[in-house]
């Protein structure tokens, strides 16, 4: 471990160690993979090194401070500090005396701490109590620090961020006494106005000063609405007390499975046929496609009728099936029947055919009448123009109609998420992302939407029952016949069906009148809540967010190349700065981190991809295909990889001395290097820097294969992405930039251009054009296994270098179908094993099925 110059433009010599490996060496030492470090004085201070059992110093400490720092490294039980010195040196006695002096000072400090603790308890302040009369909750001075630490811990679950509050103590002169005041600094995810609080009194004890500052900080959080009436951090239950957790599905009733699957069936006497012709005598058995029972015993010298079978599913409206190349039978007669056993109907065939269609015709009249009534009553204010779209939106999949709500619900779900996200971001400018996310969930959850459907009476307009001709009767008959005692006219609908229809109608409104009409539809089902949310147009929300961003902030020089990389120039540079600031970068002068912009950008990204998938019409994609595409394009793996690949060429000048001689003047050598998007992120976490370094090593190893798969492969590289294992902060950068561009420009087109430059939309176009296989191996294996259970058994081993290695066996039923080894991570092992299992099962089925 060698400390070297940190000037990036100075070319390092061959004796200098690579600084990007320093953190990796330290991590190996912390975990025990490396048990010996040889270092310069770089390890004396400022670097987190665990306690060592032996510290050897080859050079004499220059002063007491250095001696104490080195002695502090040997703080394990029975640890030793070895000082090498000259044989005749008199410094040994000096250092022994200094160590004794250090121990004396330490003992004095311990006694001083006891005195301070006694002083803390001796202060009897007349300090006010924060109380809530409604609940009886109370906050005292002694409770403040623990409450504040608990609040900070609930702000977010992001990694690489220290969520503990920091305290700064300063001395003040009050009269003739020197007292203490404290300032507490809270995490950067909170608004700037709530991030600092000062004690209102001066104290003799530092601990009491900290408690005072913590109390004032917690009081400010309560006044800002971030703490509930019980003086506890807000939870999802506080945001939506009326949201009820209910099963999404209706309980399965096996006795009802036959309903809707029964078709018109007659016995052999009354089976209808088409007349094809008359035969003078009984035809040979070889000329009849399907003979009836006792055909051989039937008379020979009597006329026979050549007949065609009446289709079983006559009377339904279905999309015509694509033509098939079926082998035409060489037998000329589908069926035959003796003329003496045949009877002719008195009603012409055309009326019989029309009569069979009457149920379907009435059924479709009913669909459109229901939709028309819905449009003229509950949805009247929306002024929707297409009744066909409304019919599509109210037909559940269980109705088995030619159309259902699945496609349009896919869009409506994304529109709802976007409108809710933007509105609550604008309405709660002081709320951190950790509170905005559960608040959003209270609006978009199935429970909330199903309650909205019931409250507006939408549930009575939803079509769920399949048309069946078995025992069919006109709909009005049900109104005339009394309901048998013990039965109910009430039907049971799942919360998901109710919620899906609401989202489908939001999608219909968007398709009919864009986002303004979609927002109007949302407000119809989810009325504004004065104390929670008043629905505003997205343009108004964007203006609020834009005006909230600081003005006239200069762009740091380190971020100046970023605008060229993005292809967009920000009007407010503060938005770009915020979008590139990690939550760990909590330093003075920082206004905000990217958490809120990432929350906003996630909804915008989802909406742009969903719209692009929905608009594809050659051919129109089915609902399951659209879901697969969104899963493949909006996930942390591909976004993280694209953030690593998206780079900007930068120039730099290295100082070079040709022969290494000090006599020759150095020269500046110009060169170019690629600066990736992720490197612009501002952070102050050692663990995050280490994770970046590890990920870059994996990226360098895998990028060639991933790029080949994305550009010319036939399958989505799920396994390679699982090995890359890009942490969430990589994709967070991209989503926060999308949010920042939208707030700054107000243009979805600018955001879409960002997706195109990053490579998301071009890859979507390739997937659609070349029919890329994007189903995840684990999901595909589940489908191939059908009703058999799939089980993954992961085992852990250790490599020669000390890193863990994972192996995985996959069982389908009781049979082991795959056994893989050599994975770096558990999820990678499962994905690899699933991929092998899928290939094996497909190969087995190909052998079993005839070509």
TrEMBL record:
<dbReference type="InterPro" id="IPR001650">
    <property type="entry name" value="Helicase_C-like"/>
</dbReference>
<feature type="domain" description="Helicase C-terminal">
    <location>
        <begin position="1"/>
        <end position="122"/>
    </location>
</feature>
<keyword id="KW-0347">Helicase</keyword>
<keyword id="KW-0930">Antiviral protein</keyword>
<dbReference type="InterPro" id="IPR005034">
    <property type="entry name" value="Dicer_dimerisation"/>
</dbReference>
<dbReference type="GO" id="GO:0004525">
    <property type="term" value="F:ribonuclease III activity"/>
</dbReference>
<keyword id="KW-0378">Hydrolase</keyword>
<dbReference type="InterPro" id="IPR027417">
    <property type="entry name" value="P-loop_NTPase"/>
</dbReference>
<dbReference type="GO" id="GO:0051607">
    <property type="term" value="P:defense response to virus"/>
</dbReference>
<dbReference type="GO" id="GO:0005737">
    <property type="term" value="C:cytoplasm"/>
</dbReference>
<feature type="coiled-coil region">
    <location>
        <begin position="92"/>
        <end position="119"/>
    </location>
</feature>
<dbReference type="InterPro" id="IPR036389">
    <property type="entry name" value="RNase_III_sf"/>
</dbReference>
<keyword id="KW-0051">Antiviral defense</keyword>
<keyword id="KW-0175">Coiled coil</keyword>
<dbReference type="GO" id="GO:0046872">
    <property type="term" value="F:metal ion binding"/>
</dbReference>
<dbReference type="InterPro" id="IPR000999">
    <property type="entry name" value="RNase_III_dom"/>
</dbReference>
<feature type="domain" description="DRBM">
    <location>
        <begin position="776"/>
        <end position="843"/>
    </location>
</feature>
<protein>
    <submittedName>
        <fullName>Putative dicer-like protein 2 protein</fullName>
    </submittedName>
</protein>
<keyword id="KW-0464">Manganese</keyword>
<keyword id="KW-0067">ATP-binding</keyword>
<feature type="domain" description="RNase III">
    <location>
        <begin position="392"/>
        <end position="514"/>
    </location>
</feature>
<dbReference type="GO" id="GO:0005524">
    <property type="term" value="F:ATP binding"/>
</dbReference>
<keyword id="KW-0547">Nucleotide-binding</keyword>
<dbReference type="InterPro" id="IPR014720">
    <property type="entry name" value="dsRBD_dom"/>
</dbReference>
<keyword id="KW-0460">Magnesium</keyword>
<comment type="function">
    <text>Dicer-like endonuclease involved in cleaving double-stranded RNA in the RNA interference (RNAi) pathway. Produces 21 to 25 bp dsRNAs (siRNAs) which target the selective destruction of homologous RNAs leading to sequence-specific suppression of gene expression, called post-transcriptional gene silencing (PTGS). Part of a broad host defense response against viral infection and transposons.</text>
</comment>
<dbReference type="Pfam" id="PF00271">
    <property type="entry name" value="Helicase_C"/>
</dbReference>
<dbReference type="InterPro" id="IPR038248">
    <property type="entry name" value="Dicer_dimer_sf"/>
</dbReference>
<dbReference type="GO" id="GO:0050688">
    <property type="term" value="P:regulation of defense response to virus"/>
</dbReference>
<dbReference type="GO" id="GO:0005634">
    <property type="term" value="C:nucleus"/>
</dbReference>
<dbReference type="Pfam" id="PF00636">
    <property type="entry name" value="Ribonuclease_3"/>
</dbReference>
<feature type="domain" description="RNase III">
    <location>
        <begin position="559"/>
        <end position="746"/>
    </location>
</feature>
<keyword id="KW-0694">RNA-binding</keyword>
<dbReference type="GO" id="GO:0030422">
    <property type="term" value="P:siRNA processing"/>
</dbReference>
<dbReference type="GO" id="GO:0003723">
    <property type="term" value="F:RNA binding"/>
</dbReference>
<feature type="domain" description="Dicer dsRNA-binding fold">
    <location>
        <begin position="144"/>
        <end position="241"/>
    </location>
</feature>
<dbReference type="Pfam" id="PF03368">
    <property type="entry name" value="Dicer_dimer"/>
</dbReference>
<dbReference type="GO" id="GO:0004386">
    <property type="term" value="F:helicase activity"/>
</dbReference>
<keyword id="KW-0677">Repeat</keyword>
<keyword id="KW-0479">Metal-binding</keyword>
